[in-house]
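Pilot study result, target chain (126 residues):
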Amino acid sequence: QVQLVESGGGLVQPGGSLRLSCSASGFTVDAYVIGWVRQAPGKEREGVSCISSIDGSTSYADSAKGRFTISRDNAKNTVYLQMNSLKPEDTGVYYCAGDPDPFRLCSDGRPEADYWGQGTQVTVSS
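Predicted structure:
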């Protein structure tokens, strides 16, 4: 069955770093657009970053540019999100999501996808 499992979240001080992992089963990550979506308490989901199923090209929310890096390891069927220079406003539950349509998941609107992981909590606090 199709499954996405996130890991790597935790508590980190402002300015620190975390690397999130998204492990996929039931499909290969180079066949779907894979994105990272976060949700803070009481707020709407917002897209953070995507990596293309076609050529591996990447996209980022303005808030993530210059600080976050998305990457894909096809051999491990895993997508990563390296997060540096973390800020308190980065706090939230981070979800890995997969969809064949890059516009649906990565358009800067409300992100939608066929498949979602269970989420991993990221807390940035001193």
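One observation from the pilot: The two ends are 40 Å apart (CA to CA). A full batch analysis is planned for the follow-on phase.
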